[in-house]
């Protein structure tokens, strides 16, 4: 009888196992870094070309030197526009930026499925872009984000937030 009483008040038992990601090989840290560098060079080239248009140049870079903690709306909006123009379609269609395509790696959910648009553009990239509202916050976020890739899971902070990982094709 005492066993029956103990069983009634025992906490529920459930087996929690990680979703198997068989057949998926994580992309290397160096490969991910190189893909990010390629993406930055592409975005920088497009932004440079856009700044040759006088109207965009005057919107992006206001006169004066406002200080470290200030935000320049024009340059942030230009950067967001360049990112969406260049990387938006490949990200949504294939889970890859142009740099990731070149290096044959892809963003997937932790269970191996294709990430949704809100997860990619909102959580994975949007939060990082939003930190640019304040350069000090952006520096702290960027440092933490970058250093977390050295975990065993090779997930940066933006991967953890969006429940994604980067795999080799």
Topology:
Blueprint: H1 2-8, H2 29-50, H3 54-60, H4 73-94, H5 98-102, E1 105-109, H6 117-130, H7 135-147, H8 157-162, E2 164-168
Antiparallel strand pairs: 1-2
Helix pairs in contact: 2-4, 4-6
Provide structural commentary.
α2 crosses α4 (73-94) and α4 packs antiparallel against α6. The chain has helices at 2-8, 29-50, 54-60, 73-94, 98-102, 117-130, 135-147, 157-162, and strands at residues 105-109, 164-168. Strands 1-2 form a two-stranded antiparallel ribbon. It has one domain (25-168). The chain is mostly helical and 169 residues long.
Task: Name the beta content range.
Answer: 5-15%
Q: How many domains would you count in the coordinates?
A: 1
Q: Structural class, please? A: mainly alpha
Helix segment count? 8
Total strands: the figure is 2
How far the N terminus sits from the C terminus, by CA atoms, comes to: 58 Å
What is the strand arrangement across the widest sheet?
1-2
**Strand count, sense and closure of the main sheet?**
2 strands, antiparallel
So what's the oligomer here? single chain
- How do the SSEs run, as a string of H and E? HHHHHEHHHE
């Amino acid at each position: 009888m005492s066993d029956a009483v103990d069983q009634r008040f025992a906490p529920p038992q459930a087996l929690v196992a990680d979703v198997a990601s068989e057949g998926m090989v994580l992309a290397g840290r160096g490969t991910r870094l190189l893909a990010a560098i390629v993406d930055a060079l592409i975005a920088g080239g497009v932004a440079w070309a856009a700044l040759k248009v006088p109207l965009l140049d005057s919107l992006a870079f206001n006169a004066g030197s406002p200080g470290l903690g200030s935000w320049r709306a024009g340059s942030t909006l230009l950067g967001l526009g360049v990112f969406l123009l260049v990387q938006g379609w490949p990200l949504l269609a294939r889970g890859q930026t142009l740099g990731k395509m070149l290096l044959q790696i892809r963003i997937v959910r932790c269970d191996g499925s294709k990430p949704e648009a809100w997860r990619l553009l909102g959580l994975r990239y949007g939060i990082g872009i939003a930190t640019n509202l304040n350069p000090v916050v952006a520096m702290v976020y960027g440092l933490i984000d970058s250093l977390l890739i050295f975990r065993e899971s090779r997930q940066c902070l933006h991967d953890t937030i969006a429940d994604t990982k980067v795999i080799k094709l």
